[in-house]
Specification:
Blueprint lengths: L2 H9 L6 H34 L3 H49 L3 H6 L2 H43 L1 H48 L1 H6 L3 H53 L5 H23 L1 H18 L19 E8 L9 E8 L4 E5 L6 H7 L8 E6 L2 E2 L5 H6 L1 E5 L9 H5 L9 H10 L3 H4 L19 H15 L3 E5 L7 H15 L3 E5 L11 E6 L2 E6 L1 H7 L2 H9 L4 H7 L6
Parallel strand pairs: 3-8, 3-9, 6-7, 7-8
Antiparallel strand pairs: 1-2, 1-4, 4-5, 9-10
Helix pairs in contact: 2-3, 2-5, 2-9, 3-5, 5-6, 5-9, 5-10, 6-8, 6-10, 8-9, 14-16, 16-17, 18-19
Length: about 600
């Protein structure tokens, strides 16, 4: 996207606040008009008060100066406040758009984009956009009016001298153009490096225990210092480029000023210009330098803002989850069918699942087992359409899930994963989450009791209203798992996915949870992934996956009798310590 198109798109986010922005521009224009007025006042001030000693001018000039500076103060205040109000509204709107997009992006986006880079876009990059969207435009309007006003006054006083200033304009434009491209590239690099830094910090904060335990401080420090140094280098390159721009423009201006002083002295000697006119002309020249400097310096925030806008709009323009369905199922019995389903994570086509055909009847409890990477977790992630199969179809009650609206599809599915996600909210807020927000307290308590969570919730200082901290940091692993199970119980969905749901529990807690899950499974279609084979021995059917294909199907007793993959997994798990089995049965990850 070229700079003009990008900038015009950016200004669209200012349009809803055009009245406030117009007020800011109007106040800015008034403020700008006072600068030439100050230069213009110098001529009557000197010629009328000091040369001609006109009594009227002696009384009038102080009052005019007071009026001009009062007008400057009022217009400057209105301009600054209105401008910042619009700028902050634009930032808020863009962040809102980015957050809304993040809520609706497909899972593949999160697989391919580091969290820190995404965070940097929302927190850092969007702030850089506001200067380009508002402040740059205000500077352009204000200083253009000042420059035009001062040049007009100078032309009025002496058109010969003013022509010298006009000759400098093409040279200034050329210098700005040469530097613009480099500033844009440097700002892109800086924003990317800031994203890398945020990603690095996010990894260290989340994994600080692993870093400490495995002595990762030196390599992590080296990695951070490398990224940190790139941020410094890009920043310094930007400063050098930007600061090179200013002295070049100033030098051109000083050369023109020197030439004008020479010719002005000649005109003064021949009485072509009065003392007041001479001082007024050079007063205008002096006032001209500051807006020229600001006008030529806006290239830096403009290019920084445009580079940031590219990054922001890249996120805003990401394709959301495909939700082409138009149907809804008011009531679901829970029949799930996979018809010749194949799926690959990578573009190279390596299959994570190949030709999966599986029918699960309403109320049936089917367990998926297999070695790590066999496709267990991948298969269940296709059901709520976190991913889409490359070929084949998935049906619920005979309806292709692609025909269902996403919200309607997911309303019928509850998930309890080994990777428990809790929000920095109360226990109540984490159980009655999302669409269940506002559930009555009795229902929340029943769900918590069914998950054997009320025993520790009652012991908390504020009970259900106790804050759990960032991702439930104030709770133990087993407590976090039970809160997640209570959330699934409260949802009361007809299809239940248990992705190693008891993996974080101690033996006693697991016994409680297994009892609660047995109750929860009644009348529901349940798909269970478990590395502890003892927890799925009573499953109605066990499906063994191997290399993305269904290798075996049967009950616990049938599969043991066959002496195949399941029998081997069972033998390995019950002839060596549990942790070794845990390692062999780590969940699938994309």
């Amino acid at each position: 996207m070229d700079s003009r198109t990008l900038y015009l798109r950016l200004l669209q986010y200012v349009r809803p606040y055009w009245r406030i922005f117009a007020a800011s521009l109007l106040a800015t224009a008034v403020l700008a008009a006072t600068e030439p007025a100050l230069a213009a006042l110098l001529k009557p001030l000197l010629d009328g008060s000091f040369v001609d000693k006109d009594p009227t001018m002696i009384r009038l000039m102080p009052l005019l100066l007071l009026a001009v500076f009062a007008l400057r103060g009022i217009s400057g205040f209105i301009s600054a406040v209105a401008l910042n109000w619009v700028a902050n509204k634009v930032v808020m709107d863009l962040r809102g758009l980015m957050f809304d997009r993040l809520l609706n992006l497909p899972t593949r986006f999160y697989d391919n984009h580091p969290t820190g880079v995404v965070l940097s876009k929302v927190t850092y990059n969007v702030n850089q956009v506001t200067d380009a969207a508002t402040k740059v435009l205000v500077v352009l309007v204000r200083d253009s009016i000042i420059i035009l006003g001062l040049l007009g006054w100078m032309l009025y006083l002496s058109w010969q001298l003013s022509l010298i200033a006009l000759v400098l304009a093409p040279l200034v434009a050329l210098a700005v153009k040469l530097i613009s491209g480099r500033l844009r590239r440097l700002n892109r690099g800086l924003q990317q490096s800031m994203g890398d830094m945020a990603h690095n910090l996010e990894e260290i904060i989340n994994g600080h225990k692993v870093v400490k335990l495995f002595g990762g401080q030196p390599p992590e420090a080296r990695r951070f210092n490398r990224v940190n140094n790139w941020v410094r280098r890009y920043t310094m390159k930007q400063v050098v480029t930007s600061e090179t721009n200013v002295p070049i423009i100033q030098m051109l201006a000083v050369i023109g000023l020197a030439v004008m002083i020479y010719f002005a002295a000649l005109q003064s000697a021949s009485d072509e210009i009065t003392i007041g006119g001479f001082v007024s002309f050079f007063g205008a020249m002096a006032l001209l330098l500051a807006p020229l400097k600001r006008l030529t310096s806006i290239n830096t925030p403009l290019q920084r803002g445009l580079a940031a806008a590219e990054s922001v709009f890249a996120l805003v323009d990401e394709e959301p989850e495909a939700d082409t369905g138009s149907r809804s199922l008011a009531r679901v019995e829970g029949r799930v069918e996979f018809r010749d389903v194949s799926f690959s994570y990578e573009a190279d086509g390596r299959r994570a699942l190949e030709g999966i055909t599986l029918a699960i009847e309403p109320g049936e409890n089917v367990a998926l087992v297999g070695m790590s990477g066999s496709g267990k977790s991948t298969l269940v992630q296709l059901l709520p359409r976190f991913y889409h199969p490359d070929t084949g179809a998935i049906l619920i009650d005979g309806v292709d899930i692609r025909e269902l609206r996403l919200a309607d599809l997911r309303r019928h599915i509850a998930l309890v994963s080994q990777d428990v996600v809790l929000f920095n909210d109360s226990v109540r807020g984490n159980i009655a989450y999302g669409a269940m927000d506002g559930a009555d307290e009795a229902a929340v308590i029943r769900a918590a009791e069914a998950a054997h969570a009320m025993e520790f919730i009652r012991a908390m200082p504020e009970g259900l209203d106790t804050l759990v901290g960032d991702n439930g940091v104030r709770l133990s692993g087993g407590q976090r798992q039970r809160v997640a199970i209570a959330r699934a119980i409260l949802k009361d969905a007809p299809i239940l996915i248990l992705d190693e749901a008891t993996s974080a529990l101690d033996t006693q807690s697991e016994r409680y949870i297994q009892q609660a899950l047995e109750v929860l499974k009644q009348g529901r279609t349940t798909i269970t992934i478990a590395h502890r084979l003892s927890t799925i021995e009573k499953a109605d059917r066990i499906v063994v996956l191997d290399g993305g294909r269904i290798a075996e199907t049967g009950t616990h007793a049938e599969l043991l009798g066959r002496g195949g993959i399941y029998s081997r997994l069972h033998r390995l798990q019950f002839t060596r310590p549990e942790p070794a089995a845990d390692a062999a049965e780590a969940p699938d990850q994309p």
